[in-house]
Amino acid sequence: MKQIEVLKESLSAIKNSDVNLLILKGEAGFGKTYSTLKYCKENGIDYKSISNYSTPLAFYKLLYENKDKEVLIFDDMSSIADTKIKDMFKAICWANFGEARKVSYYSTTPLLEDNNLPESFDFNPRVVLIFNKQPNEFEAIINRGIDINFFFTFKQKLEFFEEVKEEAKLSQDVLDYVIKNCSKFTQNLSIRTLVTLSELHTKKYDWELIAGEILRVDEVEKDLSTLSAEDWAKKMGKTERTYYRKKKKQKKKQ
Predict the structure, then answer these.
(1) How confident is the model at residue 223 (pLDDT cuts 50, 70, 90)?
(2) Domain 2-150, second-level architecture
(3) Structural domain boundaries of the chain?
(4) Which run of H or of E encompasses 24?
(5) CA-CA distance, 47 to 23, in Å (whole number)?
């Protein structure tokens, strides 16, 4: 698939220090984190994966402690809200040509001294940001690097499952079930789900019974896509105006 090839090429650019920032956006359970960590391990990259941080000071300390790594991977970026943390991300993801990336934290309190931290330092690692949904006011950071979209259509999901089925040890019976019973309105359709179902299949559980419960149809989205404004309004007991408003939101999500 195109996205996988773009990811491999982009990770190569990260490895060779030709790019400072790579952003991976997309649905959970489609291998963004797995593929990135696998690449780093296979290529002997000195990296650290980070999935939680609390205060701006704690984040600043984390950056300082890992300032000499080759790559920092920030997983699940959706929770970022603090302006100071966003400003630090801007600093670590971009610098003017020929200049070092420098991170600063100025405070009138003895917080830095108490934590043995300098007011500023040079930051060396390349950065990989992974999230399922783009945080608010994050555009200024995203346009500083390579941005890869991992949101797939149903057809693309089937292609992706086929491409990774051997490595992920996906059961052909499970894949056939997905092809026959699922659609773009199916919820929880991901590699993680199919791995779970494949393991249940291998261990002789009634995996189809469980699949029917896990892989549910999003009836709300289905109705918006398949019913006319008049029929939807009658079924939901709402106005056609509400239908068009929700339809507009649905198109934005797609």
Answers:
(1) confident
(2) 3-Layer(aba) Sandwich (3.40)
(3) 2-150, 154-253
(4) strand 21-26
(5) 16
